[in-house]
Amino acid sequence: MGSVPLMRAMRVHAPGKPLALDEVPVPKPGAGQVLVKVLACGVCRTDLHVADGDLTDCRYPVIPGHEIVGRVEQRGKRFAAGARVGIPWLGWTCGECEYCSSGRENLCSRARFTGYHLDGGFAEYALADERFCLALPEGYGDAEAAPLLCAGLIGYRSNAMAGEGKRLGLYGFGAAAHVLAQVARTQGREVYAFTRPGDAGAQAFAKRLGAAWAGGSDELPPEALDAAILFAPVGALVPRALHAVKPGGCVVCGGIHMSDIPSFPYALLWGERRVLSVANLTRADGKAFLDLAATTPIRTEVKAYPLEHANEALADLRDGRLEGAAVLVP
Ligand SMILES: [Zn+2]
Ligand SMILES: [Zn+2]
Q: If 0-12 CB within 10 Å is exposed, 13-18 middle and 19+ buried, where does residue 97 land?
């Protein structure tokens, strides 16, 4: 028997169980795929949902992680060996359905996602379809670039859905909000940051990043908002955010999963307020946001963990102990 090269990977074997450190074969690239050596992989709330079994349609065991910064091991058609690439959440789409053919591949019903349907980056190596890899701007370290790939991107898409208004509320001031706050400020917007009630640390963090106001999610901002984006997976925040948004404004839900939204009086929606969700990303979003990141200096605050400490990183995210983003470094 020839010896198969092995790699370390942190895998979810069953929902609700801690990730296990496994030795598994280094995957072999098929047609159109590149094998990437993982340099850093961000930890996202969606990884928690995969670990907890909040999402349907997950196959186990799976390697989570969809904010992968890596180096191409063997050249593909698009990327040379040694090129630094980003592997995001959107891993594959059908290319032929009504959504794929109208610039909305984020809604493709056959889409496959990294770290969910496809093994992700909580490992030493990862495979990716070259067409879905993103070129990364120079000027960001490996760990610093990782949170751009989901937190940054989803914030960017949410921000576009939120419209052009000046006063923007962000509920949940974690990885996504800390990037978006910096982008919104360069667009001349005022950022209103909402954190867990009493979380003075997170509020101070938001103000350091230029928020005009920071308070608890149970508070109303000093001025009515043009739009609010929810990054916290808490359905009860939807009516609260509607309360903070002025007529004609919108509440954008940026997460993939949320607890139930409690019923609320129609008066909160009245006045042409809107509630909408943001799903996934397109490759065009990826390119547009990373082009922006190349010209707008964004400072990502990251806490690096060794790969084996993935469970600790997930626990810190769950308990709100992070300022910025957690990143695994193999
Ligand atoms: Zn499709
Ligand atoms: Zn994510």
A: middle
